[in-house]
UniProtKB/TrEMBL annotation:
The lineage of its organism: Eukaryota, Metazoa, Chordata, Craniata, Vertebrata. Residues 71-81 have a biased composition (Low complexity). It comes from Eublepharis macularius (Leopard gecko). The keyword Repeat does not apply. Seems to have a role in zinc absorption and may function as an intracellular zinc transport protein. Coiled coil: none annotated. This is Cysteine-rich protein 1. Residues 3-63 form the LIM zinc-binding domain. PANTHER family: CYSTEINE-RICH PROTEIN 1 ISOFORM X1, CYSTEINE-RICH PROTEIN CRIP FAMILY MEMBER. It holds the Pfam family LIM. One of its GO terms (biological process) is intrinsic apoptotic signaling pathway in response to DNA damage. The keyword Zinc applies.
Length: 91
């Protein structure tokens, strides 16, 4: 029995298939729907029958507060570098 790739719709033959989450993909078709990063079988999440890498899945569909920080420079003036004058030690 020939299955069809959910990404491109073409037949996936047994010798070339990558089986993940109950579906058969072509090796090059198994990639994140958002960022197009290549995925490993079973090592990704799925939403609305589309595969996502764990980073994109958490960013788009995860609970609030799980988004990774991009960098300290994106915060503007770093809040941790500002120490109130009262708490600084004088020598």
């Amino acid at each position: 029995m020939i299955s069809y790739c959910p990404m491109c719709g073409k037949p996936v033959y047994f010798a070339e298939r990558k089986r993940s989450l109950g579906k058969d993909y072509h090796p090059l078709c198994l990639k994140c729907y958002h960022c197009k990063r290549q995925l490993s079988p079973g090592q990704h999440a799925e939403y609305d029958d589309k595969p996502y890498c764990s980073h994109c899945y958490l960013q788009r569909f995860g609970p609030r507060g799980t988004r990774p920080l991009t960098s300290r420079s994106s915060l503007g003036a770093s809040a941790s570098s500002k120490v109130p004058a009262e708490t600084k030690k004088t020598s």
